[in-house]
Specification:
Elements: H1 19-23, E1 26-28, E2 36-39, H2 54-66, E3 73-82, E4 93-101, E5 105-114, E6 117-128, H3 145-150, E7 168-176, E8 187-194, H4 203-214, H5 221-226, H6 252-259, H7 263-266, H8 274-281, E9 283-286, E10 289-292, E11 307-312, E12 324-334, E13 337-346, E14 351-358
Antiparallel strand pairs: 1-2, 2-4, 3-6, 3-11, 4-5, 5-6, 7-8, 8-12, 9-10, 11-14, 12-13, 13-14
GO molecular function: fatty acyl-CoA hydrolase activity
Domain Acyl-CoA thioesterase-like N-terminal HotDog: 42-127
Organism: Cryoendolithus antarcticus
Length: 359
């Protein structure tokens, strides 16, 4: 039987809402439970992924929790665990538990469930605005000077997997220290922003949810990039319908599109580096099959996120629909796991969030 990706048929999107607001919209099931929410619209299952895009569940858990705290409380941290793969054909129920109600801090735990089983759990801490006092100890990590001097992209790029349907856009920056043989000294970089303009109705909570959504963009892919590993297996490419129904979701149509693009444009795409571009140039499509003209690049068989943490440093000092710069590093990988750390800045160089993920 076909699935039902939402509990209630979704209404038409608000004409004032941006694409990312529509993607993350929640339906409040207050008549059942005042702390229960569900996804209003179907969630995206990335090609080749084992489940729905993790950033969507992260962001919707945050959005649900934000609706249960006073308006002057802002999230400063959330710690998440991916328990099971999310199914895009089944609605998600978000159950918010009130753990603490303090004068300066409030704590919430959110469980995302499908078919009665938890697929994701997170604990979030909120702090009342201005409760840090008048005198503060302050410092922050500076945005790399070369990136700050170069500035943000002048135009929106495109998502090479989702195209114009993506609720956010990104532009890749060259990997720092890419020629170094030590993976832990490399830094993967990109610019990222929500597509369009986030509405005033969404408040700054919408920008926080959007940042949480985008924080998962190619996060664990850092491990494969610093080790120069190929994430997509050419042997799994399917050409019968051009839609890429192989286990890694790459279609011959997509390969042909990429090969027809100028190298300068390919370099701007998320997840592309010089080694991937070189591998792409060695690929030919003959009789609907992918043929490699040089030995294939080593590849990762599977990647899945285990946990994800976000520390929000300046929750009202940014707009998620303006360019943000992200820089990732991987201090360790071993025993089938890899750790990645990410810093997120405004285009003016202000540190707005730090993230950690193990995969």
């Amino acid at each position: 039987m076909p699935g039902h990706p939402t509990l209630i048929p979704p209404p038409p999107p608000s004409p004032n809402a941006s694409a990312i607001e529509a993607t993350l919209e929640l339906t409040h099931l207050r008549d059942i439970n005042p702390n229960l929410f569900t996804n209003t619209r179907p969630l995206w299952h990335p090609p080749g992924a084992r489940g729905i895009y993790g950033g969507a569940v992260i962001a919707q858990c945050l959005a649900a929790a934000q609706r249960t705290v006073p308006a002057d409380f802002y999230v400063h941290s959330m710690h998440c665990y991916f328990v099971l793969n999310g199914n895009a054909e089944i609605p998600i129920l978000y159950d918010v538990e009130h753990v603490r109600e303090g004068r300066s801090f409030a704590t919430r735990t959110v469980q995302a469930r499908q078919r009665g089983a938890p697929i994701f759990t997170t604990t979030l801490s909120f702090m009342r605005e201005g409760s840090g006092g008048e005198k503060k100890v302050e410092h922050e990590h500076h945005m790399p000077e070369d990136v700050l001097a170069q500035g943000a992209p002048s135009s929106e790029g495109s998502d090479w997997i989702r195209g114009q349907t993506s609720p956010f856009v990104s532009a890749r920056v060259d990997i720092l220290n890419d020629s170094d043989e030590r993976p832990h000294v490399k830094r993967t970089r990109q610019w990222i922003k929500a597509r369009g303009r986030i509405s005033e109705e969404g408040g700054h909570q919408a920008h926080l949810s959007a940042l949480a959504y985008m924080s998962d963009s190619y996060f664990i892919g850092t491990v494969s990039r610093v080790h120069k590993l190929w994430r997509y297996n050419a042997s799994n490419v399917k050409s019968t319908d051009g839609k890429g129904n192989g286990s890694l979701g790459i279609s011959t149509d997509l390969i042909a599109k990429l090969k027809g693009m100028p190298i300068s444009e390919i370099r701007k795409l998320e997840g592309m580096d010089e080694d991937i571009i070189s591998q792409l140039q060695s690929v030919e499509i003959k009789d609907g099959k992918v043929v490699l003209s040089q030995p294939p690049r080593p590849e990762i068989g599977m990647m899945v996120s285990l946990d994800h943490s976000i520390y929000f440093h300046n929750p009202k000092a940014f707009r998620a629909d303006e360019w943000m710069f992200t820089e990732c590093e991987s201090p360790w990988a071993g025993d089938g796991r890899g750790l990645v750390m990410q810093r997120m800045y405004t285009k003016e160089g202000k540190l707005i969030a730090s993230c950690v993920q193990e995969s």
